[in-house]
Structure formats: C-alpha cells, structure tokens
Amino acid sequence: MKKIGLFIIGAIAAVTLFANIGSLAVLAVSLVILYYAWKRWMKADTTMKKLFWIAVGIIAFVASASNAPALIAVAAAYVLYVVYKKWNETKQMKPKEMDDPFAHFEKQWAELERSL
C-alpha cells in the first residue's frame, strides 16, 4: 500500500518536472546571464559599457522573473528524490533480545552496581 502511494506521488512529481523542464532551463540560462552582466558591470570603466551591461542585466532579470514558475520544477525534483530515497529504504529490524543467561547476568550486575 505504501509503495502504491509513493508511486503515485512520484508519477505526479515526474510529470510536473518534465512539464516545466523547458522553463527551468531558460531560468538557469537567464540567471547565468544576469550574473555575468553584473560581474561585467562591476568591471566596466566607461559609462557606455555600464549602460550596456545594465540593459543586458535588466533583460536577463525580466527573463528570470517570467520563468519563476520553474521553481515548481525544482520542488518536483526534490519530491522525486525523496520518493526515490523512500522507495529504496529498507526496514531495519530491531534486534531481538537474546535469551543468553550471561547477558541477563551482566544486566542484573549493572543494575546492582547502580543501586550501590
């Protein structure tokens, strides 16, 4: 039953991720251009160069802002990762207490030492 729920959540996350993969790529490229424009604006020494890099930065910022819904794809990728981790998770069995008489003796000895 748990696997069916994980499968449904994973399928929804995968469809959401693949539906928004294009806008995610454009967001990444526009953020790289915005960062590059900012770095070049910092190094520019003339006013014309600074104006050029400001224009490039504004265009990249508008492109980034228009692709902000691509963050849904990032969230879907994270959900898909969590589903993958849960799917491959193995149950850890709690070690059964053994009926070893010496272990029982050591446990009682430790309790006796604590009481003294």
From TrEMBL:
Transmembrane segments: 7-36, 51-84
Taxonomic superkingdom: Bacteria
Residues in DUF7649 domain copies: 7-85
Listed InterPro entries: DUF7649
Stored Pfam families: DUF7649
Entry keywords, A to Z: Membrane, Transmembrane, Transmembrane helix
Name of the protein this chain belongs to: DUF7649 domain-containing protein
Species of origin: Parageobacillus genomosp. 1
